[in-house]
From TrEMBL:
A GO biological-process term: protein import into mitochondrial matrix
InterPro entries named among the record's database cross-references: DnaJ_domain, J_dom_sf
Name of the protein described by the UniProt record: J domain-containing protein
Subunit structure comment from the entry: Probable component of the PAM complex at least composed of a mitochondrial HSP70 protein, TIMM44 and TIMM14. The complex interacts with the TIMM23 component of the TIM17:23 complex.
Length: 114
């Protein structure tokens, strides 16, 4: 009864402690930049959008299927929509990226670059 439960509790605590130490060591072994969160693309926008840049904006591969492109566009636009405090410029680049990935755009630049 009670000694068995106490033994299992101690064993579980020891296992959790060991796991925590290993996780902390793995965390500390990472470079500081990796620990600060997701790594973002640090460049600006190209004068004329390419398919590579469009894929980077949407967070997809250049070969991504149409439905996944639309899903990624919806997700990125939701996070950056002007009505939610996002920038109109970024929204235009996100829409341009979707059009580029769906083959509807020749990368003419955003409405803000004309």
């Amino acid at each position: 009864g009670t000694p068995l439960i106490a033994g299992l509790t101690i064993a579980a605590a020891a296992y959790a402690g060991r796991y925590s130490i290993q996780a902390w060591q793995a965390f500390k072994a990472q470079p500081a930049s990796a620990r600060l969160g997701r790594k973002f693309y640090e460049g600006g926008f190209q004068p004329t959008m390419t398919k590579r840049e469009a894929a980077l904006i949407l967070g997809v591969r250049e070969s991504t299927a149409t439905d996944k492109i639309r899903e990624a566009h919806r997700r990125v636009m939701h996070a950056n929509h002007p009505d939610a405090g996002g920038s109109h410029y970024l929204a235009s680049k996100i829409n341009e990226a979707k059009d580029m990935m769906l083959g509807k755009s020749k990368g003419n630049g955003s409405a803000f670059s004309r």
